[in-house]
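Worked example 2:
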Amino acid sequence: MTTIRQPAVAGTFYPARPDELRRMVHEFIDTAVSLPPLSSPPKAIIAPHAGYIYSGPIAGAAYAAIRPLTGQIQRVVLLGPAHTMPVRGLAAPDAAAFRTPLGEVPLDRAALATILALPQVQINDAAHGREHGLEVHLPFLQMVLGAFKLVPLVVGDVTSEEVTAVLDLLWGGPETLIVISSDLSHYQDYATAQALDLATAQAIEQLNPAGLGRESACGRLPIQGLLLAAQQRHLTAHRLDLRSSGDTAGRKDRVVGYGAWALTAYSL
């Protein structure tokens, strides 16, 4: 297999020049909101996927939290919602690697073969071709983790239980990191977005999938699947940042919400 998925949003959502991209990602991580250290390494993170000028500072908090895992993580399971076309189930790519301006990330074809045995997972390259929701995380992962294999899945019309079943097969041990890509509320005024996003944050931190509605997050379904898995494994969700485009680079009358969380095996 020699197919390489080419970057679709380099030069629009994030810089296409490697040196500029490295500088920007470094800055987002190095200037992330300072929090007490987590008592155990994150097993999973939730982070946003908008253009870097809008959501990069919030994503930086999630990726700052996994810096201690450099050299440990061998596989990243990356799930995010479908933005460019309708998708039934979870869409896996038929590719050997995903490319960014920072180089190629090889796919874990063995892991993908394992989950393709589930009826809710199908090969669908078209779902990945122009999808930004997964791609924007790759430079962060490359900068923080170095070498790793990727399991990228676009999540469409699926139940949270079906997402959890996929995560169960891919959960692995300390070598595997799960990343859920999601923005929060969309195109509300600043105050309304704050209220909606706070409710979403509380549902995530309570590991309460039922607390997430359609307006909570565009990645509601993959988040709910993760929360169900987290319940079963007694994880704790730690809020790392919660802001909106009105706090970063956008106007305040029509904002998109962003949040970052780390899920660990133990509470602080």
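The longest helix spans residues 190-205. The chain has ten helices and twelve strands.
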